[in-house]
Fold:
Amino acid sequence: MRTQIFLLGKTSPIPICSNQAKLSVGAKFVILAALISLTDSRLKNNEDFMKNFSPKDTLPSPALRVAQGLSFGLLLASAPLYAFNPNACLNSFQGEALKVCKLAINGDPKARYQLARVYGDAVNSRQVDYQQSFHWHRELARQAMRDNLLEPIYTLTMYNTGVMYADGVGVAQNAKNALFWFEKAAERGEALAMTRLGMLYETGGTGVTANFAEAQSWMEKAVQKENAQAKVILSKWILEGKVPAERTKAIQLLESASAQKSPQGAFALGNMYVTGFENLVRQDLIQAKNLYSVACGQYVLEACKRYHDLDTTGKLAGAPN
Structure:
């Protein structure tokens, strides 16, 4: 049995999709929740951005809630069925949330972040609306560029805007616009944006010419900034012969990514330990199980299956006796 080494594009904090990929509604919820989780994790020491709404503040009246439910159902089925209203929060928010809504409309950047967050948080918010979340992300990203707002949250907003363009969340997929916002965030030092630039330049897209030299350059910059996903991708490129480097360098990158609890890195390195991949690592099923456990704990289902196979039979399903 030939063991699949890499499982990229399925477990990234921000799901990685090809430029032509069509996302399910469920996948879009995952992307928005991941975006919100990412930005929240960067703001632990910046409570000014973290004013939490009371749930009742974002709940409209029962009658309006029914109407919004019907509208949202139509949105999921066919986006063009209702006219987009950037000031919709005036009609649906109450209390403190309504105050934030008005501040956002009047240009307050922190309030705009809050609206982008509330409309995009599929886990905690009752007002999820992809188009609204994209609108407020893009408005804030443009404002950050125009007014030279330098706090990390604004850089991440630029990155998030790029992700939404790249993956078609709340807006039609547009690789050229995604490239623009990834570049703006990368220029500010955001490693996530550097990684996505590398991926986009590798494959190209509508309005974006594939350029592997550019892809490698951005990926190496992301690795220098200790981005775990970039380490896994660069390792794959080395093993595929796309990047001239000693193959042991690929193992070092995967070990480093795994130490950062990267699910992709742990999965790939676990696969190598199962077989003693090309004598670059020794065969070690216990180490493979430990690495699969790391990936399984982050919802890589194939890693869970392989852990189970090793735990119950001492080999992967389909492997020769």
User: Anything to note?
Assistant: Residues 22-172 form one domain. The CA atoms of residues 72 and 224 lie 43 Å apart. The radius of gyration is 22 Å. The mean pLDDT is 82.
